Amino acid sequence: MATVSDTEDIDPRHRDLSGTAAGPVAASGPTSPLPSHVNAAPAGDRVFETLKVRKEGAVLYADIASPPMNLLGPALVRDLVSLIQQAEADNDLKVLVFRSADPDYFIPHVDVNRIQQYREEAAKLTGEASIALMFRHLSVSRLVTIAQIEGRVRAAGSEFVLACDMRFAARESAIFAQPEAAFGVVPGGGGIQHLARLLGRARALEVMLSAGDYDADLAERYGWINRALPANELGEFVRGLAHRIAKFPAGSLATLKDRVNAITLAPVEDFRRDSDLFGEGARNPEAQSRFQSAFKRGFQTRDPEMDLGRLVGDLD
Amino acid sequence: MATVSDTEDIDPRHRDLSGTAAGPVAASGPTSPLPSHVNAAPAGDRVFETLKVRKEGAVLYADIASPPMNLLGPALVRDLVSLIQQAEADNDLKVLVFRSADPDYFIPHVDVNRIQQYREEAAKLTGEASIALMFRHLSVSRLVTIAQIEGRVRAAGSEFVLACDMRFAARESAIFAQPEAAFGVVPGGGGIQHLARLLGRARALEVMLSAGDYDADLAERYGWINRALPANELGEFVRGLAHRIAKFPAGSLATLKDRVNAITLAPVEDFRRDSDLFGEGARNPEAQSRFQSAFKRGFQTRDPEMDLGRLVGDLD
Amino acid sequence: MATVSDTEDIDPRHRDLSGTAAGPVAASGPTSPLPSHVNAAPAGDRVFETLKVRKEGAVLYADIASPPMNLLGPALVRDLVSLIQQAEADNDLKVLVFRSADPDYFIPHVDVNRIQQYREEAAKLTGEASIALMFRHLSVSRLVTIAQIEGRVRAAGSEFVLACDMRFAARESAIFAQPEAAFGVVPGGGGIQHLARLLGRARALEVMLSAGDYDADLAERYGWINRALPANELGEFVRGLAHRIAKFPAGSLATLKDRVNAITLAPVEDFRRDSDLFGEGARNPEAQSRFQSAFKRGFQTRDPEMDLGRLVGDLD
Predict the structure, then answer these.
(1) Which residues form the domain of A92?
(2) What average pLDDT does this structure show over B140-153?
(3) Chain B: nearest CA to A252, how far in angstroms?
(4) Across the interface, do C196 and B265 touch by the CB < 8 Å criterion?
(5) Burial of C40 (C-beta count, 10 Å sphere; 0-12/13-18/19+)
(6) Which of A253, A255, A264 sits opposite B277 (nearest CB)?
(7) pTM above 0.80, yes or no
(8) Residue B33 lies in a domain
(9) What is the ipTM of this complex?
(10) CATH code, B84
(11) Gap between the Cα atoms of B28 and B12, Å rounded
(12) Which residues 220-249 of B are in CB contact (within 8 Å) with A?
């Protein structure tokens, strides 16, 4: 039904969300008024199970909508791969905004029961069975990517937004964590690479060794995100920024990304190495035992994960 | 009339500014009282058209005074080259403080109608027709440089202060931008190199992709400047800092700069590459068209540029 | 009397400090209650003159207690070397917390009259007569290290806490400085390497060129420390964090440190070069004269050093 390239509406199940602050309401302020396409007829070559997609001029909004809690499993990875491929093929597009249809969860982490499966989906983008390389593909894309974060981004969720070019988060609801160490593994999706460079040695170590939850204000002070904003301003802020950037010549946007990436983005081999370390670690008995301990406490279910920072502190 | 090496006063047209808070008033606090040289007789080998220069012990103050708005054109580049050469040749000098005689503009950006001409002036310092390399020369100088920022520093203005060793800005008046992307070009004076390292990938991309205006408080939070200070404290703060540093042995100051530069300053070839990309970009038709669109809106004139962040968002 | 590996109490002279907020009081909040070992019998192979050591599960607390002001001289270096060796040999240990028994001084700096002697003690850890390499050894240790900072950390004191994996400081009392430039030398214990990477070029230069004192809030804003906390919350915060990390599998903690160090920790040769520059600088006549000038003003005595930032600004 919905495609990236020519669709203005999305999965009708989600239509009731389209009038929220983060949705296609009329822009205020300096942004030009944008056409409303709520009733545009969907058509195209690819249906998304887990993404709600809307195109506004040169900006594509992709809302993650994979109930019950937006776990990064095979379906979501498959859709992200398709979305990225279609968006990159659409020469009209310049900016890609990722949001969540779930106010409590942006992406909580991967589905640890389906590591092999989602990795195979990721391989369709880069040829390698690793979400680290899928995320890095996004970082080097000619498309400008913005993460508009409400709810929890932990583990691979954090790594996904770290792969985006910019991150703005709702002060009241966004929660950040890189909790792999509590399970006896290390972040495998690029989190080490990005956090070490953005936060510096001491704060990156704190965040990853503690496996703790960080709110948006602290995440801003540490440089994990660009800025924390009040939830009721976040949508309009991101929308204004996305449409502003989308007015500028595509060539200079891409060149700027290239030049900044040359300085700040880790080489492929470092992403690959972290990905391998995660994969190996997740198979060892100590990690398996910790995952089981976590499942007993409600891991990968919605309510217990609201306070995952506490849950992982109790593992044994 | 005025020279760097032995002059205490400068262009008499600017004498009326010499009693301001940023000028040679008696220092309060721990700084030793400094001699007043307001009436000292100017003499020397080089007259500055666009700089108002004052020497106080081992500290040289250079106020940018190039009406109507301190555009970085051939005259200002020529004077900066001479200033740097004379200051480096003066073994009594240790610290160079850059300020502006215009409360609204520090350096707004280059004169885009005279790119070839100002580049030729820059070549007199480094042998290469690039302000990026002139700015980098300042970063590796044995002299400690401090930018005391009031008013607008955009594009090459931002890159100039980024080349200084430290940057302190007036909370009420300083405005920062790296707006090249709006014109279809990329920052060519080292902005990419410095911002990517100082702000990290996401904030550097935000700043340069958005082409927006940033106030001093946000610039401080992002690491663009050392600190934002109240305008009425800024002059004394910088003066106290400059004279404190000027008391320390020159050798350790220079060695410290060398060691920090070895870690933080990009290689010459990266500055040169950015400079070339800017030069090539500025000649392409899309950029030319955007510059014309900007000129129609008052680009390079004083009042319209007060809100350049808005102006560049309206280009087409 | 006291050893690292099996002792719960330490030098009995310090027993009266053991009930402070930073000591072994019962943890509140999410941390599991910990056994109290105040009366455990000390035993072992190594007595510490200058460290007060307490083990709680997998966490070792080492309080620096070298009156009159915790100068880093041969005795403290000797004890730190022994502590590190014993702690690394104790497979039960995962986290090492450094604190001070003196509320005004954590480590003020080295004893400049005994450079050769303390360097020889440091050589017992790394084979090289340099505290820079001793500090770097700590950074690459499998042990997670946390500095809980009250009082002054200047020069090598700052460099010691920079070598730790994390730094939390009391907002009311912690003071930071890297004042070597005032003496005509450069930081030789890794301060240049860490500050340039953590603070960025401009703030690192400001801190080291100014030789000034920085309070905990500004140190946090600059990235010198992880966070400033109220003094009355600091001990419990660090205790909770240390015991949380200590629950996680040792292998992933060590791998995380390795991966982050690969990105953020300077190579051995850069630490060695800075150490050599400091050693050479300290022997030259200008530095010797400045040290003498400082001694006349009370350098290396307790009261005058409370305001060392001012003292070094008056040297000649």
Answers:
(1) 12-233+245-313
(2) 98
(3) 5
(4) no
(5) middle
(6) A255
(7) yes
(8) yes
(9) 0.88
(10) 3.90.226.10
(11) 26
(12) 221
